[in-house]
Amino acid sequence: MSAAESDSQATRLQSTRPVSQRRVDSVDPATLMRIKNLVLRAKTVVEGFFSGLHRSPFHGFSAEFSEYRPYTVGEDLRNLDWKLYARSDRFFVKRFEDETSRRCYFVVDQSRSMGFDAQGYSKAEYAKTVAATLAYFLTLSRDSVGLMTFDQTIADYVPARHRHGHLRQLMICLERAVAGQGTDLALPLESIAATIRKRGMIVLISDMLTPLDQMRTRLGYLRSRGHEVIILRVLDPAEIDFRLAAPSLVTDLETDQEMYIDPDTAAADYRLRFDAHEAELQSICNDLGIDFYRLPTDGPLDVALFDLINAQSRRGRTVMRNRGSRGPVASVGGSR
To answer: Which residue ranges traverse the bilayer (predicted)?
Structure first.
């Protein structure tokens, strides 16, 4: 098989597995949130994810998952693992030693707006579960994970490590995090940039409901330092699809300001403002080479995990490693 033929076949294999081929028995997030222990909650999601791999195009790959990465067109064909290809029908490359351990920091928004609850659980609870799930998953892959939680100030900081007991320390910090005060996204980004000396991956988990005037500068500085950045925007479906059955008195969660809203006149204006804000955020991410995903809180987390990894691998990236996107915002793990 020539190099050109192999590259062509690899491209086809990476693009013929639609994200819609998912498990139909995913754990409902409302059921998942009833599990009080965050470690058990994260393990439930990851175990469901690996169970899904056995019924997905990744069948036969889960046992060696942390040792390989998807093949990128143009790489040396001598690095391909043909035995794994025979079992999975996909091209994978053995990860080199310097790829098998990286630092990942989760920067988790715990401001008051994250306390919004229209699903029986808050965005803050969903965000904590996302962070716990990804931290648990990456720990299985022998990566070092760290944590920063914030509202208007930095609440907790856990340096990225990979050693016995470290994941539990991180989970304890997540479990005690509660929706606090207003949002200052510039502060944690400035703080994490000043704290991290070596290049790593930074996953910002937030509703991003904040003015974006300083975001380009702060995110740009992180990228200039060589950090990979992924933004996971956690939103309640009620925030995405604004609906009020009748005129209502609503309260701003962060300022306590009350406002009387007529849904007939407010809905269109809300949609315009929401779309403009998200378009600006997407533009910032596109310009800086940052991946931007929207996570609705009604989305099963094992599906979201699959979508994230699948989206990364279809772009020819190492699992959960970012090289920058240029497309519209992707919504992962949401209702179908």
So the answer is: none
Intra-chain end-to-end CA distance of the chain, in Å: 40
What tokens were used for 129?
A: 């579960």
CATH architecture of 26-56+100-331: 3-Layer(aba) Sandwich (3.40)
User: What's the rounded Cα separation, in Å, for the pair 218 and 287?
Assistant: 13
At residue 60, does pLDDT exceed 90? no
Distance CA 128, CA 230 (A): 16
**What average pLDDT is seen over the chain?**
77
Closest CA to 291 of 309, 269, 267, 264: 309
Structural domain spans, the chain = 26-56+100-331
Beta strands in the chain (DSSP E): 68-70, 92-94, 103-109, 144-150, 154-161, 201-206, 228-235, 248-251, 258-261, 291-296, 330-331
Largest CA distance in the chain: 68
Q: Name beta bridge partners: 150.
A: 109, 154
Q: Give mean pLDDT, residues 80-104.
A: 70
Instruction: Record the pTM.
Output: 0.75
